[in-house]
Amino acid sequence: MKSTISTPYFLVDETRLVQNLEILRQVADQAGCKILLAQKAFSMFSCYPLLRRYLAGSTASGLYEARLGKEYFGGETHVFSPAYKPEEFEELLTYADHFVFNSPRQLQKFGPKAKAAGKAVGLRVNPECSTQEGHAIYDPCAPGSRLGTTLANFDESLLPLLDGLHFHTLCEQNSDDLETTVAAFEEKFGKYLHGLKWINLGGGHHITRKDYDRERLMRIVKHLKDTYQVEVYLEPGEAVVLNAGFLVTSVLETLHNGMDIAILDTSAACHMPDVLEMPYRPPLQNSGESGEKAYTYRLGGPTCLAGDVIGDYSFDAPLNEGDRLVFEDMALYTMVKTNTFNGMPLPAIVWRDANGQEKLVKAFGYEDFKNRLS
After folding, report:
1. What region holds the Orn/DAP/Arg decarboxylase 2 C-terminal domain (predicted)?
2. Domains of the chain
């Protein structure tokens, strides 16, 4: 991957993105459901015109995402928040088509206003069915969760306000976990679906992953449609851009302290915070596990945070100042989470079209850092 663009930069590949979108459209067509982009994972709005040719709309977690979806994506705009701010709700009504509330109190407080404005109204429920392993930070069904209404807290008197129900419990999971969750959901909340218009199965569905069982997903969707006569929504984020993005970085320095270390011009803390939050080890082109190849390095960022470490990787040859390294699967939860801690510059954003031509979409500088402060 040769480029004259200064590192670090995110690169999104049109060909790989379209491959994902074709799969998602096929699933939507064959299952008879609607698939939305979860903007919390990917908000590169310059490619929204491409995405909206395949997807039914977008989902938002608040005012700004809803506005971005309405203005740049089009189609349906859905919004969910654990708690809406009263001073923002009137503006939200101008952007969103579907409002999902987190609790009966929120539904009671804001639902009538949304209904009066002609919006679809839903309630997020918690089926209390954990299927995740090792990702407790992303488990909405964990004990004490603030996300979704449990059956014990469900208020049947508010059913006349509802058009649909929503749950979101998955994270990078296959359709067998969805099947388990749907069974728990139906046992607790299925009786309330009769007479409603839709159900939203949330995100976390790794639909475009090679080993994902799409036939099972389509059976689940068809079962819900046939049983309850409802429209079914899916709102993946990762599946839309899975393996379609890269983060290109350069080696600034190498040193030795009990092991070989390479300092890069990108930062786990600033540019790929999920490496520290999940945690996970991002794939790196032409590398191996620690000790697998001849030369092993600990890759770290240039910030003052001692734990700003991406991971240990091995290479066929020693790393040298100026070498470019390319991290893979860097479209999802990257650009949306970057920060300027230590005054770190934000990576540029680059688009590679279907002909292999790379175009600089956005570069960031001092003003972007300064304007976040006062």
Report:
1. 139-330
2. 32-241 (3.20.20.10), 245-330+338-370 (2.40.37.10)
In 3D, which of 118, 73, 71, 82 has the Cα closest to residue 98?
118
Axis crossing angle, helix 214-228 with helix 14-31, rounded to the nearest 10? 40
> H helices of the chain, where?
14-31, 48-51, 63-68, 86-92, 104-116, 175-193, 214-228, 238-241, 268-271, 274-277, 366-370
Shortest CA distance to 59 belongs to which of 51, 70, 48, 49?
Answer: 70
For residues 257 and 289, give the distance between their C-alpha atoms in angstroms, rounded to a whole number: 19
Q: Under the phi-then-psi rule, with left for phi > 0, alpha for psi from -120 to 50, and beta for the rest, what region is 258?
A: left
How far apart (Å, rounded) are the C-alpha atoms in residues 366 and 343? Answer: 8
pLDDT at 265: 98
pLDDT (tens digit, 9 = 90+) per residue, 330-372? 999 999 999 999 999 999 999 999 999 999 999 999 999 999 9
Pairing of strands 324-328, 245-256: antiparallel
What predicted TM-score, i.e. pTM, was given to this entire model?
0.95
- Measured CA to CA, the distance from residue 197 to residue 97 in angstroms comes to 14
Determine contact, residues 313/260, Cβ cutoff 8 Å: no
Which tokens belong to 359? 């175009």
